[in-house]
């Protein structure tokens, strides 16, 4: 066999063998067998010494070409193996996205948040804008600008959580009245839902943390009738047709005149039942005309503008709406209880 045939044969068998190779080790073994130090091609190169001098250049060239071809074949196979490996890996890692999974446990909104969302929806529908204020509040806004001077009983350390002499946990959402009036010009129509704090012992109707929604309207010619109309619309929207309001004279330092507002008992529609203790009415909020002195302190001219304000306790509404007998149930975090409200 001439050198050409030998080389051709060698490459052919190498190719056949390559096609059966499935791993790197076998590939390396073949490389060593052909072009390693003691490889078949290497041996041929060494054997050139036995050739006639004039045959050497041509033989050398052929062997080198064969070497290059073999290296290329080797690399091609290496690449093919890599592809096979990748395909196998991809196949193994396939995720069946259509496979049904057990349902994830879904949370539910807290009854106070449900009521809050419904009320926000109701008032924004009437043109109110939602504003939010700090829960840790300056005495200045919580009391001073609300016309609650030093020594007023509402400041009693028994009711108020003091952070220091000038900072309190807000005892109501009313400080947002002052903050809003100081930062905006009338017409003002805002509600402010949020958390408030009073150092009360927790019982069936009290909690040191609870929620209110403040409402404030300031414009020319705002009257008590506007407050009545707004709250009647709110009552019907939340509890349905036939639910209305009853105003009872009351006192708040920041409103004048002030009123306590009752809603028709939704449980008996005013006939009188256990829920309303036979009266047909449920007390739900306080309100009144913004005290001219408060308007003045907040930079609004009381000879030009008037306003009304109200503050609604959200827990009271939620308890009534869902028939919850004890306030503490709202804060114990028992999902068996909380999961009932949607
Ligand atoms: N801030 C009062 C309270 O916490 C409620 C209220 C708000 C009364 C606005 C009148 C006007 O009880």
CATH top level assignment of the largest domain: Alpha Beta
Ends apart, CA distance between termini: 91 Å
- Give the percentage of residues in beta strands: 15-25%
Number of helices: 11
Number of strands: 10
What is the radius of gyration computed over CA atoms, rounded to a whole number of angstroms? 43 Å
Task: Catalogue the unreliable spans.
Answer: none
CATH topology of the largest domain: BirA Bifunctional Protein, domain 2
In the sheet with the most strands, the strands line up as 1-5-6-10-9-8-7
Determine the oligomeric state from the structure: single chain
Overall number of structural domains: 2
Sketch the major β-sheet.
7 strands, mixed
Bound molecules: phenylalanine
Structural overview:
40% of the residues lie in helices and 20% in strands. The N and C termini lie far apart (91 Å). It contains eleven helices and ten strands. The protein folds into two domains: 3-92; 111-341, Bira Bifunctional Protein, Domain 2 (BirA Bifunctional Protein, domain 2), CATH 3.30.930. The protein has a seven-stranded mixed sheet, with helices on both faces. The protein has a three-stranded antiparallel sheet with strand order 2-4-3. By secondary structure, the chain is of the alpha+beta class. The structure holds phenylalanine. Phenylalanine is lined by residues 172, 174, 252, 255, 286-288, 309-311.
């Amino acid at each position: 066999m001439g050198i050409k045939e030998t080389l051709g044969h060698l490459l052919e068998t190498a190719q056949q063998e390559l096609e059966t190779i499935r791993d790197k080790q076998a590939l390396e073994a073949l490389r060593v067998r052909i072009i390693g130090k003691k490889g078949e091609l290497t041996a041929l190169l060494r054997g050139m010494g036995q050739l006639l001098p004039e045959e050497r250049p041509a033989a050398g060239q052929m062997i080198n070409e064969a070497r290059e071809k073999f290296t290329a074949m080797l690399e091609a196979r290496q690449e093919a193996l890599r592809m096979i490996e990748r395909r196998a890996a991809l196949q193994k890692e396939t995720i069946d996205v259509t496979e049904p999974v057990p349902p994830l446990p879904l949370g539910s909104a807290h009854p106070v948040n449900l009521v809050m969302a419904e009320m926000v929806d109701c008032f924004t529908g009437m043109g109110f804008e939602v504003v939010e204020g700090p829960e840790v509040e300056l005495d200045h806004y919580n009391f001073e600008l609300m016309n609650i001077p030093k020594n007023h009983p509402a400041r009693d350390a028994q009711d108020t959580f003091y952070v220091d002499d000038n900072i309190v946990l807000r005892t109501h959402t009313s400080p947002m009245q002052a903050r809003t009036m100081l930062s905006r010009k009338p017409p003002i129509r805002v509600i402010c839902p949020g958390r408030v704090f009073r150092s009360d012992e927790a019982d069936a109707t009290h909690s040191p943390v609870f929620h209110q929604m403040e409402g404030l309207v300031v414009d020319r010619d705002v009257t008590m009738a506007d407050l009545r109309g707004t709250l009647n619309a709110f009552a019907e929207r939340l509890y349905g047709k036939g639910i209305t309001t009853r105003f009872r004279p009351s006192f708040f330092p920041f409103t004048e005149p002030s009123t306590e507002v009752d809603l028709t008992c939704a449980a008996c529609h005013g006939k009188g039942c256990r829920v309303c203790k036979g009266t047909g009415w449920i007390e739900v909020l306080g309100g009144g005309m913004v005290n001219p002195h408060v308007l003045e302190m907040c930079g609004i001219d009381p000879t030009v503008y008037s306003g009304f304000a109200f503050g609604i306790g959200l827990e009271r509404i939620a308890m009534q709406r869902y028939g919850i007998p004890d306030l503490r149930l709202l804060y114990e975090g028992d999902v068996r209880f909380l999961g009932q409200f949607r």
